[in-house]
Each structure stands twice: as structure tokens, then as C-alpha cells.
């Protein structure tokens, strides 16, 4: 198959981890006889430096034309002045909104070989396999923001339609999994959460009677997620709660550097990015964990290109690298760990072992 993939490296470790994922996608293309083309564009701080805008028009246009978008991360101290007029993060929010990517899928499945990297006791981690569906284009991130004298406000808004579509997405995923959805809100305090709970209850009752739905308040959810992570299947929640809970959930897997994501919507184009940020503290050192971005590339193969076998092959290759003990510093005991290149090379080597070569017809 032919596919055009727009690559948005962004800032900090973004260029290092997207380069790794592109190498893996090239290897997949070669092995399975696909033609993938990669078009690199600017976003975030790099785009502000070059053009003054965090999401230049040609970047958005390229993304809209593409079959899929692979993104690294945006942001960093250089652009973090609280008084700055433009910020790298605005570019990320703008592209999510413009592409209509309301469902952000963040799978969490601790790898047996990496259990030691987690601060959680291993016996709580075996069998954990959960999928967080984070609403991505609404809520407090996108409501009106104001400064009035010595006060500031951020408005949190949700419409019924916005809640319905993301809950439907979560339920559809749950149908193909264990049939359980946990909807997370703060309905004891927030009006948006009371609407969220009402809509989630109705959607499941009317459209997904086979799904068991449970409601959980976000504060106690933060605790349960660490205390009994095995009990969760699909977790659906609003934008900011999903952001926070998934960084927490990364500690089940052992590192932020292991969690991929897929952002999907009503439109044709999906966006794929690790859940971590630009990691300014390690940027440029060649030590960033590339697995989260490589696993995001696997989600791209699955969700945007419909290449399930290829997606599985990439996931098996990362599993294989972890099984072989190829750990970057974030996963290894202090002072140990291989660099980004060696970890990527290990995945490429596993690809050779795990994936069926192309059968050439004569
Ligand atoms: P961060 O995710 O960048 O880093 C948190 C910690 O995790 C750091 O110690 C970092 O070194 C480590 N880490 C993250 N990814 C890693 C990887 N692949 N390998 C090894 N270690 C890794 O979060 P932060 O420090 O709070 O934010 C830094 C900047 O990134 C901010 O400007 C923020 O806005 C931005 N950010 C961007 C995205 C995105 O583009 N999607 C996501 C989160 C944060
Ligand atoms: C993420 C990030 C972004 C978010 C920031 C950089 C805008 O933390 O992708 O998780 O909060 O959505
Ligand atoms: Mn985040």
C-alpha cells in the first residue's frame, strides 16, 4: 500500500524519538512491500522560532492531506515564559482541534520484563491491561481564558454531543475487550461532570446494554488506579482528568517513555504521539526512550492504515527488545541503560525475527 505520513518532530526529545519511529516504519514498509512517504513539518517551539506561529498553516494543510500524522512532543523552557503571547502547546491543541481528534486512546499494559521499573509491587501489575479514552477537544483546555486584574479564569464546558461521541467510542472499544467501562468524573462538585455522568449513563443504557458501566470520582480513581489496576478495562474521562491519570498510569508500565497514544475523530486523519512531553532535562543527550513513539507508530499502522499484522509485528518487536533486556535509562537501574539508537536498533533486529518477510511471487 501507499501512504503519506506527516512527521512533526517538535521540540526537546521529539526529533530523537520520531526519528526512531520513522526508521521502524521504513523497515516495516520494506519488509511488507509498502510505499510510505514521510513529509516533515514544523510544530511547537521549533515552528515559533522559524515562523512566529506554533502551528503554521502549511503544517496543518500537510496534516489534512496526509494519511496519518506522527508527532514527537512540543514545549520547553525556551518558550515557557508565563507572559509569552504564543506557546508551543497551543500548536498541539490547535492541530487536535482542527483535525477533530476527540478520542485519545492511551493503552497501558505493563510488560513482564519491565515490572522492576515500576514503583508498584509486581503482584499488582501482572495481568493489567487497560485502555484510557481521554476526551481531547473539549473541557477546560478549550474554554474561554481570561485575566482580569489580579484574577484569572479558565472555563470548563462540555456539550451533550461531545460527551456522547467519546463515550460511544469507549463503549465500542470495550465491546471488543472485557466489556467494562469506568467513567471518571467529579460529579460531586462540577456541573460538567454531572452532565458527563448523565450522558454516559444514558448512552450505555440505550446503545450498549451489554456493557457494564461504573462511575468513579477522579480523586479516588487516582488511588484505585495504583491499588487495583487489574480491575479496569476501558476508562473514559474528560480532557484534563485523562491527561493527569495517564501520566500516573505510566508508572504501572514503569516509565512515561513506554506509553503510546492514538488520537482519532470523525475525520479521516489520525494523529499518533507518545504521551510524554519534550523532556527538556534529557533532550539532545541521545538517551530518550523511543519505545512509546515506536508503539505510537504501531497504532498508526493499525488505526490509520488498517495494517493489523504490521502493527502487531512492531508491538512484538518492542516486546522482544524488552524481553532481551534492552532498557533505556528510564527503565534500567541507576547509571545503566542503553541510548535511543541502541534501543531502536534492538527493535529493528527484533522486526527481522518477528515479522513475516514479503512473499515474492514469480
Ligand atoms: P515530560 O513528559 O517532558 O517529562 C517528565 C519526565 O519524564 C522528565 O524527567 C523526562 O526526562 C521523563 N521522560 C519523558 N519522556 C521520556 C522518554 N521518552 N524517555 C525517558 N524519559 C522520559 O513532562 P514535563 O517535564 O512536565 O514537560 C516538559 C515540556 O513538555 C513542557 O513544555 C510540556 O508542556 C511539554 N509536554 C508536551 C507534550 C506533548 O507534546 N504531547 C506532553 C507533555 C508535556
Ligand atoms: C499531553 C500533553 C499536552 C496535554 C500538553 C502539552 C498540551 O500533556 O499530550 O498529554 O495536556 O494534552
Ligand atoms: Mn500530558
Automatic annotation (TrEMBL):
Q: Which UniProt keywords apply?
A: Amino-acid biosynthesis, Branched-chain amino acid biosynthesis, Cytoplasm, Leucine biosynthesis, Magnesium, Manganese, Metal-binding, NAD, Oxidoreductase
Pathway annotation: Amino-acid biosynthesis; L-leucine biosynthesis; L-leucine from 3-methyl-2-oxobutanoate: step 3/4
Q: Where is this chain primarily localised?
A: cytoplasm
Q: Which residues bind NAD(+)?
A: 76-89, 277-289
Ranges of residues in domain Isopropylmalate dehydrogenase-like: 4-347
Q: Where in the cell is it found?
A: Cytoplasm
**Which branch of life, at top level?**
Bacteria
Family annotation (PROSITE patterns) = IDH_IMDH (PS00470)
UniProt-annotated binding residues for substrate: 96, 106, 134, 219
**Catalytic reactions of this protein:** (2R,3S)-3-isopropylmalate + NAD(+) = 4-methyl-2-oxopentanoate + CO2 + NADH
Question: Where do the annotations place Mg(2+) binding?
Answer: 219, 243, 247
Question: Per the annotation, how and in what number is the cofactor bound?
Answer: Binds 1 Mg(2+) or Mn(2+) ion per subunit.
Q: Which InterPro entries match?
A: IsoCit/isopropylmalate_DH_CS, IsoPropMal-DH-like_dom, Isopropylmalate_DH
Give the positions of the site Important for catalysis. 141, 186
What cofactor does this one take? Mn(2+); Mg(2+)
Q: According to the UniProt entry, what is the EC number of this protein?
A: 1.1.1.85
| PANTHER family according to UniProt | 3-ISOPROPYLMALATE DEHYDROGENASE
Q: Which family does it belong to?
A: Belongs to the isocitrate and isopropylmalate dehydrogenases family. LeuB type 1 subfamily.
What binding partners and quaternary form does the record give?
A: Homodimer.
The role this protein plays is: Catalyzes the oxidation of 3-carboxy-2-hydroxy-4-methylpentanoate (3-isopropylmalate) to 3-carboxy-4-methyl-2-oxopentanoate. The product decarboxylates to 4-methyl-2 oxopentanoate.
Protein name from the UniProt record: 3-isopropylmalate dehydrogenase
Q: Which organism is it from?
A: Lysobacter panacisoli
Amino acid at each position: 500500500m501507499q501512504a503519506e505520513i506527516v512527521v512533526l518532530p517538535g521540540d526537546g526529545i521529539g526529533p530523537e524519538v520520531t526519528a526512531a519511529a520513522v526508521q521502524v516504519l521504513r523497515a516495516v514498509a520494506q519488509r511488507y512491500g509498502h510505499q510510505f512517504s514521510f513529509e516533515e513539518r514544523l510544530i511547537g517551539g521549533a515552528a515559533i522560532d522559524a515562523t512566529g506561529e506554533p502551528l503554521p498553516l502549511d503544517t496543518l494543510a500537510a496534516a489534512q492531506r496526509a494519511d496519518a500524522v506522527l508527532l514527537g512532543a512540543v514545549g520547553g523552557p525556551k518558550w515557557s515564559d508565563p507572559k509569552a503571547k504564543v506557546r508551543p502547546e497551543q500548536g498541539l491543541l490547535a492541530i487536535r482541534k482542527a483535525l477533530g481528534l476527540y478520542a485519545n486512546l492511551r493503552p497501558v499494559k505493563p510488560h513482564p520484563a519491565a515490572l522492576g521499573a515500576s514503583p508498584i509491587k509486581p503482584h499488582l501489575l501482572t495481568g493489567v491491561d487497560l485502555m484510557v479514552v481521554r476526551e481531547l477537544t473539549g473541557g477546560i483546555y478549550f474554554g474561554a481564558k481570561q485575566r482580569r486584574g489580579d484574577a484569572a479564569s479558565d472555563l470548563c464546558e462540555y456539550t451533550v454531543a461531545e460527551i456522547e461521541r467519546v463515550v460511544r467510542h469507549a463503549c465500542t472499544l470495550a465491546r471488543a475487550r472485557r466489556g467494562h467501562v469506568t467513567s471518571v468524573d467529579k460529579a460531586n462538585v462540577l456541573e460538567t461532570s454531572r452532565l458527563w455522568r448523565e450522558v454516559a449513563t444514558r448512552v450505555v443504557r440505550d446503545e450498549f446494554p451489554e456493557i457494564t458501566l461504573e462511575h468513579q470520582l477522579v480523586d479516588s480513581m487516582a488511588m484505585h488506579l495504583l491499588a487495583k489496576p487489574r480491575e479496569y478495562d476501558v476508562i473514559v474521562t474528560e480532557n484534563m482528568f485523562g491527561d493527569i491519570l495517564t501520566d500516573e498510569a505510566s508508572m504501572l508500565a514503569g516509565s512515561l517513555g513506554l506509553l503510546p497514544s492514538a488520537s482519532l475523530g470523525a475525520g479521516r486523519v489520525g494523529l499518533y504521539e507518545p504521551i510524554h512531553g519534550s523532556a527538556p532535562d534529557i533532550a539532545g543527550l541521545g538517551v530518550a526512550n523511543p519505545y512509546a513513539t515506536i508503539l505510537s507508530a504501531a497504532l498508526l499502522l493499525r488505526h490509520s492504515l488498517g495494517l493489523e499484522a504490521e502493527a502487531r509485528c512492531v508491538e512484538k518487536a518492542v516486546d522482544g527488545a524488552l524481553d532481551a533486556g534492552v532498557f533505556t535509562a528510564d527503565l534500567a537501574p541507576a547509571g545503566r541503560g542503553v541510548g535511543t539508537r541502541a534501543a531502536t536498533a534492538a527493535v529493528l533486529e527484533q522486526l527481522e525475527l518477528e515479522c513475516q518477510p514479503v512473499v515474492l511471487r514469480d
